[in-house]
Design goal:
The complex is a heterodimer of chains A (901) and B (110). Chain A is of the alpha+beta class and 901 residues long. Helices cover 54% and strands 16% of the residues of chain A. The longest helix of chain A is centred in the last third of the chain and has 44 residues. The radius of gyration of chain A is 37 Å and the shape is globular. Chain B has 110 residues and is of the alpha+beta class. Helices cover 54% and strands 15% of the residues of chain B. Chain B has a three-stranded antiparallel β-sheet with strand order 1-3-2. In chain B, a hairpin with a 5-residue loop joins strand 2 and strand 3. The longest helix of chain B has 27 residues. Classes of the chains: A alpha+beta (901), B alpha+beta (110).
Chain lengths: 901, 110
Amino acid sequence: MRRLLRSLLFQLRSLFGWNHKQAELDEELQFHIDMGIKERTDQGMTPEAAQRETLKEFGGMEKYKEDCRDNWGTRFFVDSLRNARFGMRLCLRYQNSSILAVIVLALEICIAVMMFTMTTQLMDVSGGGSLNERHLYLQWELGKKQSMPISSQDFKHFRKEVDSLENLMGMQASNFEFYLPSNTKEIKQYSGIKVTPNFFGYTNQVPTHGRTFVESDTLTQESNVVLISDYIWKDFFSRSISALGSEAIINGKKYQIIGVMPPGFAFPGNKQLWMPSDWKEFDTTPRSHAPLIEVSGMLKKGFDREKAKIELDTIAANLSTSFPETNQERTRVRISTYRDYFIAQEVTFFLFFGLCVSCIVLLIACANLFHIIMARTAIRSSELALRSSLGAKRSHVIWQVLVDGLILSAMGSILGIGLAAIGLQIATQQLKVFNLPALLDFQLQPNFLFFALGATFFSGIASSIIPAWRASKIEVYSFLKDDFRSTSSLYIGRLSKWTVVSQVTFSAILVFISVFLLKSFSFYKKDLPYDDTSVLTASLNFENDPLYGKAGNNNRFYLEFKRRIMSVPGVKAVAFTDFSTAITTSSKGMIPGDRIPFELERQPSENASSLKSSSFGSVTPDYLDVYGLKIRHGRMINESDTKDSMKVCVVNTHFVTAHSNDEVPLGERIKIIRPGDDPDEWLTIVGVIPSTWVAVREAQSDITYSQIFVPFAQTQKKSTRVLLNAHHASNYTYAKKIQEIVRNISPQIQLNKTILTISDLYNLLTVIRKLILTGALAFGSAILVMSMIGLYSINAFTVERRKKEFGIRMAVGSNSWGIAKSVLRPWMITIGIGLILSALIMLATLFLLTPHQMKTSSSFFIFGPAFLFAAGIIGLVSFISIVIPAWRATKLEPMDVIRTE
Amino acid sequence: MPKDKPDLLKGTLDLLVLRILNSGARHGYDIARHIQVVSKDVIQIGEGSLYPSLHRLEKRGYIKAKWDITETGRRAKFYQLTADGKKKTSEEENKWQEFTAAVNLILKNG
C-alpha cells in the first residue's frame, strides 16, 4: 500500500512538475557524462578523446531519456497535452483544412444529435419515469392478438385480490383545457391523465415541490387537486413557488395545484397534468357503464410473470362466473411489460431507421475527416519522419496523429452541439405555433451529450487511425529520397478511392431520402367551399363495445349520439363518416386514404390491372349539412337508405372528372372489387356531391381524390369519424360534450384524445409538414456540403502534391486540358462507380420493400425522378468539388512551381 | 566493450542495482563503476541503460532519490533503498540463487 502511494506520488510529481523533472534528468545524465570525462582525462586522455569515449560508452542519450520518461508513468498524459498544444498550432497553421474538418464534423454531430433527440423523445413512453421489466401492463385477452382495456370496476377487484403485483394502478388519459382564474384569455390545451393515488409509487418519482397524491384526495368531488409539469409551471407561473396552493381551471372545473413534477417527467408518454381519481362515481353504475382504463402494476419480488398470470387469470375466471353478462368472454389477462406494449413495431422501425441514417451520416463524416487528416499528415510527413529518426517510438507518432484527429473532432463536436441546440429550439418553436395537446419540447439531454462525446471520439479515432498507422511507418531515408510523390502515393491509394466511392454512394442514398420526403409531404390548402373553423372532428372506435361493435349496430349508436348532441346549444349538424377530412397521416406517409378497385357497369374491365380505383367510405345523411354544402346532382344519401334497401352510393366531383369524362353518372352502377365483398352486388350512383378535401398534393391527379360514398346504415365499421358543425366549434365545451355523451351511451367506445376543428387539423398538418420539410432540406443540404468538402479536400491535396509534376509537364509542352484531364479522370471514374452503386442499392431496396401488387412500372415511376434528381445533384456537387482544384492546377506557372520545389 | 564479455541477462540489471544500493546511497555514475569494479570488468553495462532502470525502480517505490553534494562538491542525484526495496532485494536474491543453483546443477550433471 505504502509502495503504491509512493508510486502514485511519484507520478503526480512527474505530471505536475514535468519540466522540473525533465531538467533534473538532463542534469543527472550530464553529471554522469562529466564524471566519465573527468575520470578519463585523469587517466591521461585528451578532453576531446575523453568526451568521445564517454559518450560512446554511454550510448544513445536521447533514447535513454525517452526510456526514462516512459518509466515515469505519466508519458501518456504529458504527450497528449503536448500533442494537443501542437495540434492546436497545426489547426492555426493549416487553417483551411481545419475549418473544413470542423464544419464536416459539426454538421454530422448536429444531424446525429438532433435525430437521436427527436426520435427518442417522440418515441419515449417512459416520459422520465423509471421503468423496467417489473413494470407490467394489463389488458383483457380476447383472442390471439385481440385485447381490450379493463373497466374501472374490474380493476378494483384485481386491486383487492391480486397478491403477485404491487402498486396496481389505473390511468385514464385525456386532453384538458388549462387556464388560470386571473387570466382567462390564455387557455392552453394539455395532454393529462387521471390516475389512482398510488401512481407515483409506480413511477418512483417525487415532485420537486409540493406533494404527491394521498388516498383522501379522491374522497370528495368538491376538492379537486392537480399536479402540474415543470413545463406548465414555467409557462404559467415563471417557476414561482406561489404556484403551490393556487387555483387553476381545468376543463371548466377548479383545481388546487398541490405539486410540481421534475423537469423531463411526463409519464406516461407526454403528460403535463396529473389528477387523482378512483372512478368512485362508476362503482354503483351498471357494470357495462364503467369506463375502460389503463391498468398497470409492478411485479412483486419473488414472483415471475407466469405466476402473476396464473393468479390474474384465476381472478378473471371468478369475475366471469360472478358477472357473466359483462365478463363472459373476459377470462384471461394479457400481461406485457409497459415498454413492450407501447413501443409498437412501427415505432421501433422508425427508431432503427433514424439510428441507421445517423450512423451513415457519421460514417460519411468520418470518411471526409479521414481524407482531411490524410492530407494533413502527408504534409507533416517530413516532421514525423524526423521525429521517428530521433528516437520517438511508433506508438508516440501514432498518438500524435490521433490527437490531431481528436482535437478537430472535439472542436467540430462543440460547434455541432451548439448547432443542434439551436436546431432543436427552432423545431420546438415551430411546434409551439400550434397549441398541440401533445407537447413537444425538444431539449438536449445529458445522455445525448454522452452520445455526442462518443460520436466525437469515434470519428476522431476512426478517421485518423489509418493516417496515424501509415505515418508511423514512414522511414526518413525513403522520405528524403523520394520526397513528395512517395508520401502522396502513400496516402492516396486504393483505400482513399474506395472511401470516396462509398461516400458518394451513401450521400446519393441520403439525398434521395430527403428528396423523397420533400416530395411526399408537399401539399397545399384548397379554396374551401365551407368554413373549416366551424367543423369539429373526433374519432370513435367501436371495437371493444359488446353492443355497438356488433354488425348492424353502428347506425343505432349514430342515431342516439345525434339525438343527444343536437340538444346541445350551438350545435347545428352532426354526421359520421369513415373518410378522412384532410390528408391522412399514416405510416405510409401523408396519403389521401387507401384506394379500392371498382368496375363501372357500362365500362367492364377486361382484367384486374385495368380496373379503376377510388377512395371508398360511408357517410350519414347529414354529411353535406355539416359542411353547409348542397348536392350538385341527384340526391344525397337519406334515411330511406337502410341496410335492407337498395344499395346506393354518391360520388364526389373528382370522381366525375376522373372516371366519368365529366359526365354526370347518375343511375350508373358500380361494383366494388374487394375480397370478402359480394361479387354480384352493384351500387347505383344516386348523386354527385362537392369535394371536401382540405389539402391536396399538386402532383396528384383527380383519381387520387375521387370518392365513393355509401350509406353509413348499409355498412359496419370498427371506427368512424364524428363531424360536428357548431357555433365557435373550437370551444372546448363541445369536445367535452362529445366525451360526455359517448361515455354515457357506452363507456366501452373509445374516443380519440385529439378533438380538433378541421382548420386546426390542417394547421397541425402544416406544422408537421413544415418541420419535416425543414428537416429534410437541412439534412439534404448538410449531406451535400459534407460530400463537397470531402471530395474537394482530397482532390485539392492531390493537386498540391503533384504541383511539381504539373510544372514539369507544362514546361515540356503539355496544355491545360491535358493537366485537367489527368486530375479529373481518376475521380470521375470513382464518382461514377459510387453513383452506379447507389442506383443498384436503391433499386434492390425498392424491389425488396415494394409490396408485390405495387411492383409495377408506376411505383418505379414515382421513385425514379426522385432518385435521378438525387444522383444528379450529388454528381454535380462532386463534379464542382473536383473541378475547382483541377482548374487551379491548370493555372500554375511552371517556372514558379519548379523553383519553389 | 570486448566482444567475449557476456551479455547481461534480461531483468538482472534491476537486481544488481538493488543489491548495490543495499550498502548505502549512491549516484548513477557510482553504481555503474561499482558494477564494473566488483564484477572485475566482466559485466559492462551500456551506462545509459542504467538510468531507465533507476527511474523504473524509483517509480515502483523500491528506491528513493534525493539530490546531494558529492565528495567533489558537485550536485548529484543519490538513490537509496526503501523498506520495500530491501524486501524486494532479498526476494530477488533468493530467486537468483535458486536459478543459478539450478543452472549449475544442469551444467554439472546434465
